[in-house]
Design goal:
One of its GO terms (molecular function) is ATP binding. InterPro entries: AAA+_ATPase, ABC_transporter-like_ATP-bd, ABC_transporter-like_CS, ABC_transpr_LolD-like, MacB-like_ATP-bd, P-loop_NTPase. With 247 residues, the chain is α/β, with parallel strands linked by helices. Helix content is 34%, strand content 25%. Helix 6 links the parallel strand 7 and strand 8.
């Protein structure tokens, strides 16, 4: 499992106690290869968001192991987890999480500046050019379209060259055109920049941009699809008794 960018072994996550106890994850073992784009899908309540939050160190597992590369993150203290998320993990959320008073450039650089780290100017120029942001770097979020704001969020996630970028419904607040644009950029970051992306989505079209789709149901793995099409994903979700609504 340690050859993966991120992986989990017999991962279990429960909420509540006794009769109210809910098993959000019920023994999930899964790995995500470096340099690949993977989508996680499942019916509402399947555990897909819980899995991503545990893998990213945003939530703790009840039992089991999580590895980021060769680092086991289960059992790390809060300060160690904070440092790991800051240095080795990137995030792209449904809400863009940009600071409204800062320019696009300042938003992109903010995490590194807060960490007291300098940025690689050549890498910054390359990332912003690939993402089509060069002419928008002096603009503040309210001066950018939704798609452009999400591009800024993607650039921010890429700048530290993280081990993995986690996307939590990254196109959920975008129209279809902007959503396709952002998904295309995530795929390019994998194919051209060697990034690893793990994305939770309820949208079969969004999932079709991935190299692989991991399916969850009732907190357990329920299959996977390689080189998926939207029709493949829709058919698989029907087999799980869902049209693909969000969890």
């Amino acid at each position: 499992m340690r050859d993966f960018a991120v992986s989990a072994v017999d991962l279990r996550k429960s909420y509540g106690k006794d009769q109210t106890k809910v098993h959000a994850l019920a023994g999930v073992t899964v790995g995500f290869e470096r340099g690949h784009f993977t989508a996680i899908m499942g019916p509402s309540g399947s555990g897909k968001s819980t899995l991503m939050h545990c893998l990213a160190g945003l939530d703790s597992a009840t039992t089991g192991q999580i590895w980021l590369g060769e680092t086991e993150i289960t059992g790390l203290k809060d300060k160690e987890l904070t440092r790991l998320r800051r240095d080795r993990v990137g995030f792209v959320f449904q809400s863009f999480n940009l600071v409204p008073t800062l320019t696009a450039r300042q938003n992109i650089l903010l995490p590194l500046e807060l960490a007291g780290r300098s940025h690689d100017a050549e890498w910054y120029d390359y990332v912003t050019e690939v993402l089509g942001l060069t002419s928008r770097l002096r603009h503040k979020p309210h001066e950018l379209s939704g798609g452009q704001q999400q591009r800024v969020a993607v650039a921010r996630a890429l700048l530290s060259r993280p081990d993995v970028i986690f996307g939590d419904e990254p196109t959920g607040n975008l129209d279809s055109v902007s959503g396709a644009e952002v998904l295309g950029l995530l795929r390019r970051s994998v194919r051209e920049l060697g990034q690893t992306v793990v994305m939770v989505t309820h949208d079969p079209v969004a999932a079709s941009y991935a190299d692989r789709v991991v399916l969850l149901a009732d907190g357990k793995l329920a299959g996977e699809i390689t080189d998926p099409t939207a029709d493949d994903v829709i058919e698989a979700m029907r087999g799980l008794g869902s049209a693909g609504v969000a969890a």
